[in-house]
Write a structure and sequence with these properties.
Blueprint lengths: L2 H6 L22 H12 L17 H5 L5 H12 L8 H4 L1 H9 L4 H23 L6 H23 L9 H8 L10 H9 L22 H13 L5 H13 L3 H5 L6 E4 L2 E5 L4 E4 L1 H12 L29 H10 L4 H15 L2 H8 L3 H11 L4 H16 L1
Antiparallel strand pairs: 1-2, 2-3
Helix pairs in contact: 2-4, 6-7, 7-8, 11-12, 12-14, 12-16, 16-18, 17-18
C-alpha cells in the first residue's frame, strides 16, 4: 500500500523582586517550585546572582547580564513557566548575550564587521522565520555557526596579513582547502559582505550534493511502522515519534515543537498540523497521538494546573521541549534509524504527490520536496495541468 493509501484509505471509513519569588504570584503552583529556582541560583558559582541587592527586579535583561550557563538557563525556564517572567523566543534571545561574550575576545576591526552581520542579518532572518513557525535548536545553531565561521575567516586572513577588504578568491579557496562541508556555510556571510562592498568579488563555490544513502525499503518501513503503532512494550513517545517519522518524514527538531494545539479533530477524523496544512492521521496513529497528548508528563517537578496547551514531547524542564538529540538517541536505542525512516517517508510521498502538495502537507521547504520528487523521477506535469484546468473552470463558472 502506498503512503497516501495508508493515510487516506482510512478516510473513506508590577515586576517581582528576588525575595518575591518565595511567594508565587499569578500562578497557583506550590511554593517549593519557585524556592527551587532560588536554590538553583544561590548554589551556582557561575551565575552569582546572590550578590545582587535583594529587592532588584527580576527581568530577562537582568539574567542576560550574568555569565550564561546551564544553571542560568534552567532558572529562566522555571521563572517563565511560573509566570514570574514573560515568555520570549528563548533560543534566539540567548544569542545576543552569547555574541557579546564571543566578540569580547576578538579585535575591534573584526567585531565591527561581524556584529552587524550577526544582529541585522543572521539573527534577523532567524527571527523572521520564528514568526511563521516554532524556533528549533537547529535555527539557533545556524546563527551561531554563521558568527563562528565569519570570525574564523577573519582570523585566518589576519594571519596572512590581510583584511576582508584585501582578501582574494585564492585566500577563500585556501581557507576551504581540505575543510569539511561546514565551512561552505560561510556563503551567507560572503554574500552579505560583498553586497555592502566590504570585500571584493569573492564567492563560496557550491559543493555538489549527493543523494541520501540511508534508506529503508518499503517492507522494513512497514515493519517498523507496524511496531510503532501496535507494540505496547515500546515507550509511548518513542512509538509516536517513530510513527510520525516513518509515515510523514518529520525531523526530531520539528517533532519537539509540536503541542497539543496542533492536534485537530474534525468530525471523526484527526489531523496533526506540521506547518500550514493539517495532515490527516490514520486511526491507529491518531489514537497513539491522542494517548501521548493525554499522558501525564513524567519527571517534571512543576506543573501548571490550568495549562491549556502543552508540548507533545516535553523535556526534563518545565516548558521546554525534549532536545532533538535526546529524542534521536531514544529512537536509535529501540532500533529505529531516524534518518533512514525520514528518507523512506519523503521518498514515498514524492512518489504519491506533486512536490508543492507534499511540501505543504509535510511542512518542508518546496526546494526539499522538489529534490525528493526529482530523486523518485516521477513526472507530475499531467496531474498539475489537470488541476490547473479544473481550477480555471471553477473560476470561470
Amino acid at each position: 500500500m502506498t503512503t497516501c493509501g495508508f493515510v487516506f484509505g482510512y478516510a473513506c471509513v508590577d515586576k517581582p523582586s528576588f525575595s518575591d519569588t518565595l511567594t508565587p504570584r499569578r500562578t497557583s503552583e506550590p511554593k517549593h517550585a519557585l524556592a527551587l529556582s532560588v536554590t538553583y541560583v544561590t548554589e551556582s558559582a557561575t551565575a552569582k546572582i546572590r550578590s545582587d541587592p535583594p529587592q532588584r527586579p527580576i527581568t530577562h535583561d537582568l539574567l542576560d547580564s550574568y555569565p550564561q550557563s546551564y544553571v542560568l538557563h534552567r532558572l529562566r525556564d522555571l521563572l517563565v513557566y511560573s509566570g514570574v517572567l514573560p515568555e520570549r523566543t528563548e533560543l534566539l534571545d540567548r544569542i545576543e548575550p552569547w555574541l557579546d561574550h564571543v566578540l569580547s575576545r576578538h579585535p575591534q576591526e573584526h567585531v565591527s564587521i561581524v556584529r552587524p552581520f550577526a544582529v541585522w542579518h543572521a539573527l534577523r532572518r532567524a527571527r523572521q522565520r520564528a514568526r511563521k513557525r516554532p524556533t528549533t535548536t537547529n535555527a539557533a545553531t545556524w546563527v551561531r555557526s554563521q558568527v563562528t565561521l565569519a570570525l574564523d575567516l577573519l582570523s585566518f586572513l589576519e594571519d596572512r596579513g590581510k583584511t576582508l577588504a584585501m582578501a582574494t578568491q585564492a585566500d577563500i579557496d585556501a581557507w576551504l582547502d581540505g575543510a569539511t562541508e561546514y565551512r561552505y556555510l560561510l556563503s551567507s556571510f560572503i554574500n552579505w559582505a560583498r553586497a555592502r562592498r566590504l570585500c571584493g568579488e569573492l564567492a563560496i563555490p557550491r559543493r555538489p550534493r549527493t543523494d541520501p544513502e540511508t534508506f529503508l525499503d518499503e517492507a522494513h518501513r512497514t515493519q517498523f511502522l507496524t511496531r510503532c503503532l501496535h507494540d505496547h512494550d515500546l515507550p509511548l513517545d518513542v512509538r509516536a515519534a517513530g510513527a510520525l517519522m516513518l509515515l510523514y518524514g518529520q525531523t526530531a527538531s520539528r517533532l519537539a515543537t509540536l503541542t497539543t494545539a496542533d492536534i485537530r479533530q474534525i468530525g471523526h477524523e484527526t489531523y496533526l498540523q506540521f506547518d500550514k496544512t493539517p495532515a490527516l492521521l490514520p486511526p491507529p496513529l491518531a489514537a497513539l497521538v491522542k494517548a501521548l497528548r493525554d499522558a501525564p508528563s513524567r519527571g517534571m517537578t512543576l506543573q501548571r494546573s490550568n495549562e491549556q496547551t502543552r508540548l507533545l514531547f516535553p523535556g526534563r524542564f518545565p516548558g521546554r521541549p525534549i532536545a532533538a538529540k535526546v529524542l534521536l538517541r531514544k529512537l536509535r536505542r529501540h532500533g529505529i534509524d531516524p534518518r533512514a525512516a525520514r528518507h523512506a517517508a519523503r521518498a514515498a510521498w514524492a512518489q504519491d504527490l506533486p512536490a508543492s502538495i507534499a511540501a505543504d502537507l509535510l511542512g518542508i521547504n518546496i526546494s526539499t520536496a522538489t529534490k525528493w520528487a526529482t530523486r523518485t523521477r516521477r513526472d507530475w506535469s499531467d496531474y498539475i495541468a489537470a488541476r490547473n484546468q479544473q481550477r480555471d473552470g471553477d473560476v470561470s463558472g
